[in-house]
Amino acid sequence: MAKKSLPQSLQLGRAVEWPDSPKKAQLDRVPNPQADTNYLVRFTAPEFTSICPVTGQPDFAHLMIDYVPGQWLLESKSLKLYVASFRNHGAFHEDCTVMIGKRIAAEIKPKFLRIGGYWYPRGGIPIDVFWQTGKLPKDMWVPDQGVAPYRGRG
Protein backbone atom coordinates (compact mmCIF):
# COMPACT_ATOMS: atom_id res chain seq x y z
CA MET A 1 0.00 0.00 0.00
CA ALA A 2 1.39 3.38 -0.99
CA LYS A 3 2.05 5.89 1.77
CA LYS A 4 -0.26 8.90 1.57
CA SER A 5 1.46 12.23 1.45
CA LEU A 6 0.62 14.42 4.40
CA PRO A 7 0.29 18.18 4.37
CA GLN A 8 3.54 19.80 5.44
CA SER A 9 1.76 21.51 8.32
CA LEU A 10 0.96 18.20 10.06
CA GLN A 11 3.33 16.90 12.72
CA LEU A 12 2.33 13.29 12.01
CA GLY A 13 5.00 11.23 10.28
CA ARG A 14 7.91 13.54 10.97
CA ALA A 15 10.23 14.52 13.78
CA VAL A 16 9.17 17.66 15.61
CA GLU A 17 10.42 19.54 18.66
CA TRP A 18 8.54 19.09 21.93
CA PRO A 19 6.66 22.36 22.55
CA ASP A 20 7.68 24.08 25.77
CA SER A 21 4.32 25.74 26.42
CA PRO A 22 0.66 25.15 25.50
CA LYS A 23 0.58 28.40 23.51
CA LYS A 24 3.43 27.17 21.30
CA ALA A 25 1.94 23.70 20.84
CA GLN A 26 0.23 22.95 17.53
CA LEU A 27 -2.98 20.92 17.47
CA ASP A 28 -3.58 19.21 14.14
CA ARG A 29 -6.80 18.08 12.57
CA VAL A 30 -7.48 15.71 9.71
CA PRO A 31 -10.65 15.24 7.65
CA ASN A 32 -13.20 12.85 9.15
CA PRO A 33 -13.80 10.06 6.60
CA GLN A 34 -17.04 9.13 8.44
CA ALA A 35 -18.45 12.66 8.76
CA ASP A 36 -21.95 11.42 7.88
CA THR A 37 -21.96 9.09 10.92
CA ASN A 38 -22.24 10.00 14.60
CA TYR A 39 -19.70 8.16 16.73
CA LEU A 40 -17.68 8.84 19.85
CA VAL A 41 -13.91 9.21 20.05
CA ARG A 42 -12.17 8.87 23.42
CA PHE A 43 -8.66 9.98 24.31
CA THR A 44 -7.19 9.01 27.68
CA ALA A 45 -4.18 10.79 29.15
CA PRO A 46 -3.53 9.01 32.47
CA GLU A 47 -0.22 10.76 33.19
CA PHE A 48 -1.01 14.44 32.63
CA THR A 49 1.36 16.79 34.46
CA SER A 50 1.37 20.53 35.06
CA ILE A 51 2.89 22.85 37.64
CA CYS A 52 1.15 24.62 40.52
CA PRO A 53 1.37 28.35 39.70
CA VAL A 54 1.87 29.23 43.38
CA THR A 55 4.23 26.58 44.76
CA GLY A 56 5.90 25.33 41.58
CA GLN A 57 5.21 21.75 42.63
CA PRO A 58 3.99 19.21 40.07
CA ASP A 59 0.31 18.39 39.75
CA PHE A 60 -0.89 15.14 38.18
CA ALA A 61 -4.19 14.23 36.54
CA HIS A 62 -5.94 11.54 34.57
CA LEU A 63 -7.63 13.28 31.63
CA MET A 64 -10.53 11.77 29.67
CA ILE A 65 -11.55 13.50 26.45
CA ASP A 66 -14.69 12.35 24.62
CA TYR A 67 -15.96 13.93 21.43
CA VAL A 68 -18.37 13.35 18.57
CA PRO A 69 -16.53 14.56 15.47
CA GLY A 70 -17.99 16.70 12.76
CA GLN A 71 -15.88 17.38 9.67
CA TRP A 72 -12.59 17.02 11.54
CA LEU A 73 -10.74 14.50 13.69
CA LEU A 74 -8.14 15.45 16.27
CA GLU A 75 -4.78 14.01 15.25
CA SER A 76 -3.40 12.00 18.18
CA LYS A 77 0.33 12.82 17.88
CA SER A 78 -0.44 16.52 18.06
CA LEU A 79 -2.62 15.89 21.13
CA LYS A 80 0.25 14.01 22.79
CA LEU A 81 2.60 16.93 22.14
CA TYR A 82 0.01 19.46 23.31
CA VAL A 83 -0.64 17.56 26.54
CA ALA A 84 3.11 17.25 27.17
CA SER A 85 3.51 21.01 26.75
CA PHE A 86 1.80 21.49 30.12
CA ARG A 87 4.65 19.79 32.03
CA ASN A 88 6.30 23.12 32.80
CA HIS A 89 3.14 25.24 32.58
CA GLY A 90 1.93 26.88 35.78
CA ALA A 91 -1.86 26.85 36.05
CA PHE A 92 -4.55 25.69 38.42
CA HIS A 93 -6.37 22.40 37.80
CA GLU A 94 -9.52 24.14 36.62
CA ASP A 95 -7.64 26.33 34.17
CA CYS A 96 -5.68 23.44 32.64
CA THR A 97 -8.75 21.25 32.17
CA VAL A 98 -10.97 23.94 30.65
CA MET A 99 -8.12 25.37 28.54
CA ILE A 100 -7.53 21.97 26.93
CA GLY A 101 -11.23 21.42 26.23
CA LYS A 102 -11.68 24.87 24.69
CA ARG A 103 -8.55 24.59 22.55
CA ILE A 104 -9.59 21.23 21.12
CA ALA A 105 -13.14 22.44 20.49
CA ALA A 106 -11.88 25.54 18.70
CA GLU A 107 -9.59 23.50 16.47
CA ILE A 108 -11.86 20.62 15.41
CA LYS A 109 -15.35 22.07 15.99
CA PRO A 110 -16.88 18.81 17.23
CA LYS A 111 -20.62 18.23 17.53
CA PHE A 112 -20.02 17.44 21.20
CA LEU A 113 -16.96 17.41 23.45
CA ARG A 114 -16.48 16.72 27.14
CA ILE A 115 -13.31 16.59 29.18
CA GLY A 116 -12.91 15.17 32.65
CA GLY A 117 -9.84 16.17 34.63
CA TYR A 118 -9.40 13.79 37.54
CA TRP A 119 -6.66 15.42 39.57
CA TYR A 120 -4.64 13.56 42.17
CA PRO A 121 -4.77 15.02 45.68
CA ARG A 122 -2.37 17.62 46.93
CA GLY A 123 -2.92 18.99 50.39
CA GLY A 124 -5.37 16.14 50.96
CA ILE A 125 -8.02 17.36 48.52
CA PRO A 126 -8.60 15.80 45.10
CA ILE A 127 -10.15 18.11 42.51
CA ASP A 128 -12.19 16.80 39.57
CA VAL A 129 -12.95 19.27 36.79
CA PHE A 130 -15.49 18.72 34.00
CA TRP A 131 -16.25 20.84 30.94
CA GLN A 132 -18.33 20.21 27.86
CA THR A 133 -19.57 21.96 24.78
CA GLY A 134 -21.96 21.20 21.95
CA LYS A 135 -25.05 19.06 21.96
CA LEU A 136 -24.84 15.31 22.18
CA PRO A 137 -26.52 13.86 19.07
CA LYS A 138 -29.69 11.87 19.74
CA ASP A 139 -29.20 8.15 20.39
CA MET A 140 -25.45 8.47 20.96
CA TRP A 141 -23.94 6.10 23.48
CA VAL A 142 -21.41 7.78 25.70
CA PRO A 143 -19.82 5.36 28.17
CA ASP A 144 -18.95 6.42 31.67
CA GLN A 145 -15.44 7.81 31.81
CA GLY A 146 -14.55 4.96 34.14
CA VAL A 147 -12.35 6.92 36.54
CA ALA A 148 -13.30 6.04 40.09
CA PRO A 149 -13.80 8.90 42.52
CA TYR A 150 -10.89 9.35 44.88
CA ARG A 151 -11.45 7.25 47.97
CA GLY A 152 -8.18 7.59 49.85
CA ARG A 153 -6.92 4.59 51.74
CA GLY A 154 -10.35 3.44 52.99
UniProtKB/TrEMBL annotation:
- Main location per the UniProt record: cytoplasm
From the UniProt record, list the reaction(s) this protein catalyses. 7-aminomethyl-7-carbaguanine + 2 NADP(+) = 7-cyano-7-carbaguanine + 2 NADPH + 3 H(+)
Taxonomically, the superkingdom here is Bacteria
Q: Name the keywords, alphabetized.
A: Cytoplasm, NADP, Oxidoreductase, Queuosine biosynthesis
Region (Disordered) location: 1-31
Locations listed in the record? Cytoplasm
List GO terms (cellular component aspect): cytoplasm
> Carries keyword rRNA-binding?
no
According to the UniProt entry, which residue ranges have a biased composition of type Polar residues?
Answer: 1-11
Gene3D superfamilies tied to this protein: 3.30.1130.10
Pathway(s) it belongs to: tRNA modification; tRNA-queuosine biosynthesis
Task: Drop me one GO molecular function for this one.
Answer: preQ1 synthase activity
Q: What is its EC number?
A: 1.7.1.13
Give the UniProt record's GO annotations in the biological process aspect.
Answer: tRNA queuosine(34) biosynthetic process
* Active site, UniProt feature: C52 (thioimide intermediate), D59 (proton donor)
Residues bound to substrate: L74, E75, S76, H93, E94
Q: Quote the InterPro entries the UniProt record gives.
A: GTP-CH-I_C/QueF, NADPH_dep_7-cyano-7-deazaG_red, QueF, QueF_type1
* Family classification: Belongs to the GTP cyclohydrolase I family. QueF type 1 subfamily.
- Which HAMAP family does UniProt cross-reference here? QueF_type1
Its biological purpose is as follows:
Catalyzes the NADPH-dependent reduction of 7-cyano-7-deazaguanine (preQ0) to 7-aminomethyl-7-deazaguanine (preQ1).
Which protein are we looking at? NADPH-dependent 7-cyano-7-deazaguanine reductase
